[in-house]
Amino acid sequence: MGQTENNKPGKLVIISGPSGAGKSTLLGNVFRQSHLPLRWSVSATTRPPRPGEKDGQDYHYLSKAEFQEKRDDGEFLECFEVYGGGEWYGTLKSEVAPRLEAGDWVVLEIDVEGTRAVLGHYPDAVTIFVRPGTLEQLGERLRARGTEEESQIRRRLEVARREMDSIDIYRHVVVNGEVDGAVKDLCDILEGHETKVVDTP
Predict the structure, then answer these.
(1) What is the pLDDT of residues 91-107, one digit of tens each?
(2) How far lies 188's CA from each of 42, 55, 140, 192, 194, in Å?
(3) Which structural domains are found in the chain, ordered by start?
């Protein structure tokens, strides 16, 4: 969709929420339904690609040396070691600033810690926290996926509890109890910001 009408500047949209809260499903629907010029920001990572993943589409796959060099050169808006597993993830400035200048709405799906870092650069970002109805429901979703051991699920639930304690740094909160309703809430939030001017550095 590229440049928006009247050469309006783009907006930065930050989506956070616990693992298993359904962010990716909701965003996939929002991208299909919204008329806004939404664009994913492709994160960088040091972890190897999984089967079927493509460099530059799913992630920018970097060696640890390449990642460290970009960190040292200040090329990241935010970057952190995730879950203490030795792998790094981050948002490259080159994924964000040029697209905002072109009028796109750049969507970051990042955690609470990353959000705090990005808000230091873009304090007027549209921030949305997607949460499950309850932590018990989140636990049920994680177990239903059948991809992790119980110990890993308990760890994710503890991380989710801490993330939900930081919910007040977000402008908007969407409860994903029912997908269609949550998608509508997200679209309404984004479209409500359509006429507001967001300053970019």
Answers:
(1) 999 999 999 999 999 99
(2) 24, 32, 28, 6, 10
(3) 1-41+103-195 (3.40.50.300), 42-95 (3.30.63.10)
